UniProtKB/TrEMBL annotation:
Complexes and interactors: Homodimer.
Protein name: FMN dependent NADH:quinone oxidoreductase
Organism (species): Sphingoaurantiacus capsulatus
Membership in a protein family: Belongs to the azoreductase type 1 family.
Pfam families: Flavodoxin_2 (PF02525)
Reactions listed under catalytic activity: N,N-dimethyl-1,4-phenylenediamine + anthranilate + 2 NAD(+) = 2-(4-dimethylaminophenyl)diazenylbenzoate + 2 NADH + 2 H(+); 2 a quinone + NADH + H(+) = 2 a 1,4-benzosemiquinone + NAD(+)
Annotated Gene3D superfamilies: 3.40.50.360
The UniProt record lists the keyword Flavoprotein: yes
InterPro entries per UniProt: Flavodoxin_fold (IPR003680), Flavoprotein-like_sf (IPR029039), FMN-dep_NADH:Q_OxRdtase_AzoR1 (IPR050104), NADH:quinone_OxRdtase_FMN_depd (IPR023048)
């Protein structure tokens, strides 16, 4: 049985391309593996609080106030979901060349020393090994090649964040050029759907 954690971060509601692609992906997974379990965190719909001076010690220190204890409880819950999953499916729209701030807030809660990574004499070490991730990246423009490739602050960041906690088996599925006319958009969505089906079939 596959245990899947879906983290959606689109702010566009049900019209979101990344959410729609992931919905189809999960339907196909379930058709092939009816026992698959799926936990969904939609941080675009229900955003997590940002870490602030009042709450930070809950994640990067020892909690001693109510706000810090609340941040610790949120971090504990998110890490438990992540730890329990074998496959992490992330819906990542490109916002201003990077990831959505709501998705960044999720990472800010799950990158926690002693829990998901640790510092060693040889440098930091990710503790969540043995997991796979699939990241659905939606973009209005084209960044996988061409002149805008240097502006892609999304995919390298996601690779770093996931790798930092030990998740290095990552498949990126990109739906690009969504804002470059209906034909380009439809072709991108079809190609992304095909890539998601190929992932399941592999
Ligand atoms: C706030 C905001 C910022 C965006 N910034 C970019 C950008 O920097 N580059 C780009 O190619 N598309 C950008 N887009 C377009 C989205 O990436 C595109 O619409 C994508 O489909 C959104 O994903 P979704 O359909 O899953 O919501 C932006 C969209 C929004 C709402």
């Amino acid at each position: 049985m596959t245990r899947i954690l879906v983290v959606n971060s689109a702010a566009t509601g049900e019209t979101s391309v990344s959410k729609t692609l992931i919905k189809g992906f999960i339907e196909t997974v379930r058709a092939n593996d009816p026992a698959a379990s799926v936990v969904t965190r939609d941080v675009g719909h229900e955003p997590l609080p940002h870490l602030t001076a009042a709450s930070l010690a809950g994640v990067r220190g020892q909690p001693s106030t109510d706000a810090e204890r609340a941040a610790r409880a949120t971090s504990d819950a998110l890490i438990a979901e992540l730890r329990a999953a074998d496959l992490i499916v992330i819906g990542a729209p490109m916002y201003n060349f990077g990831i959505a701030s709501t998705l960044k807030a999720w990472f800010d809660h799950v990158l926690r020393a002693g829990e998901t990574f640790r510092y060693t004499a040889a440098g930091p070490e990710g503790l969540l090994t043995g997991k796979r991730a699939i990241v659905v990246e939606t973009r209005g423009g084209l960044y996988s090649e061409g002149p805008a490739a240097v502006m892609d602050a999304q995919e390298p960041h996601l690779r770093t964040l996931l790798g930092f906690v030990g998740i290095t088996d990552i498949t990126f599925v990109r739906a690009e050029r969504l804002g470059m006319g209906p034909e380009a958009g439809a072709a991108a969505i079809n190609a992304a759907n095909d890539a998601l089906k190929a992932f399941i079939a592999a």
